[in-house]
User: Fold this.
Amino acid sequence: MKTNKNRKEIQELAFSKFTDQELADAYIFPSELQSTQEKDAEKDFWINRRKQFENKSENEKMYNRLLQLKFQLEDYISSNQYHKAFNFGYFLNEYVNRQDKKDKQFAIEVDVTPAVLSQYINNHRKPKDEFVIRLELHSGGMIPAISWFKVLQKDKEHDIITNQKLRLEESKHVKNRLEFAY
Assistant:
């Protein structure tokens, strides 16, 4: 499935930032001398933590998943790096999936056809401004339209920088180029 492939690429990207030594240093190994009392306290902590998580309502769990997506999206758009896997379609697909909704149901909620939604998710069509505004409204303002636009802009910037075919075609239309010696 395409989504699983994207998730694997994203995990690889996350770990590629760090050297093996940095990853090893990030782990904290418990002391052999840790008392039984400390071990019991830690075990109780994790049991209580798990209970808290399990007692959350489905709405709270969805809210947490969407908040996590918002932070991931903001981290990506604030970074100077472009990653093909993190495109508008990826974030839109994650937005729909983290609500545990089918594409068809979500398409109805934002008033587009399922085919158009699929084209947005698979990056076969760029979304209209109206659709991006609908995403903000649908999220209750949690994910602002400007964040969705910035992801689109990042995709466009990369395309402009790397599209050599377009540059070659357009160079035929430029005459009397300015040349400067530095």
The domain at 57-160 is CATH 1.10.260.40 (434 Repressor (Amino-terminal Domain)). The longest helix spans residues 58-78.
